[in-house]
Each structure stands twice: as C-alpha cells, then as structure tokens.
Design goal:
There is one protein chain. By secondary structure, the protein is α+β, with helices and mostly antiparallel strands. It folds into two domains: about 5-40, no CATH class; about 45-135, GMP Synthetase, Chain A, domain 3 (2-Layer Sandwich), CATH 3.30.300. The chain has helices at about 35-40, 45-70, 105-120, 120-125; strands at about 5-10, 15-20, 30-35, 75-85, 90-100, 130-135. A three-stranded antiparallel beta sheet has the order 1-2-3. The chain has a three-stranded mixed beta sheet with strand order 4-5-6, with helices on one face. Strand 1 and strand 2 (about 15-20) form a beta hairpin. The mean pLDDT is about 95.
Length: about 140
C-alpha cells in the first residue's frame, strides 16, 4: 500500500503560506504557515499532523496487540505531543487511556509498550518516544 500527500508553498519561509492535500481528501488545500508552526496561528502544521499520525497509528496497533492477547478494548484514547526544538523534532509523548474489559494493569502496560515500540509511525520517527498509559 502506498499513500501520498502534497504540499504547495508560496513566498518566503516566514511571510509565505502553503496548502496541504492528501490522497483521501481529508486534507484538501488545508492551509499552513509560519505562525501556525512557531507562534499562535490557526492553521495546521507538520508537527500537528505527525502527532495525529502517531496517535492514530499507536491506537490501532494497541488494538491489534490487545486482540492478539485475547482482549477487545472498549476504547483507546491517545494524545500525542510532538516537541519541535531548534528546527528538529526532539520527542513524541503518548498519553493513553483505555477501557479494556478483563485485563490487568501489568498486561495492559506490556501491550502498550509493544504497541509503542512496533507501530509503524514509532518505527519511522528518529526521536525519543515516551508514554504514559493507564486503564480508565
């Protein structure tokens, strides 16, 4: 499977602006700019999109890991915070709350650690990945 997205940028890095589009059209000429990335703008930015990708990928992988261990989650809620410092992504932090009938905290922690290490976005990121995982 291959996915794609496109970017179009006009102008200088600080004063310019751009749009992002994705194959699915979930992003369809979605605006991004310097202010949204480094200040208080209202558009999206690459780090926000990486955070969404990591949260979504991790949650799905955790569901697969739990299923392979005989558990079906009622819900998995994941917040991902991407930190950008000095022009580089320096960390990705996952905050996970899940409702998983019948699982104990130790087994859940092991499943969450497996998902953190093995989701495709975790494998893609060349940065420190930290996590707080708890049953709700």
């Amino acid at each position: 499977m291959k996915s794609f997205a496109t970017a179009n940028w006009k102008g200088t890095g600080k004063e310019g602006n751009g749009t992002l589009s994705s194959k699915s059209k979930v992003l369809d000429n979605t605006s991004y700019d310097f202010r949204s990335r480094f200040e208080d703008g209202t558009y999206t930015n690459p780090e926000e999109l990486v955070a969404a990708a990591h949260a979504g990928c991790f949650s799905m992988k955790l569901s697969f890991v739990l299923g392979a261990s005989g558990f079906t989650p009622d819900s998995i809620d994941t917040k991902c915070t991407i930190t950008l410092e000095n022009g580089a992504i320096t960390s990705s932090h996952l905050e996970v709350k899940a409702v998983v009938p019948g699982i104990d905290a130790e087994k859940f922690a092991a499943c969450a650690a497996d998902a953190k290490a093995n989701c495709p976005i975790s494998k893609l990121l060349n940065t420190e990945i930290t996590m707080e995982a708890a049953l709700a």
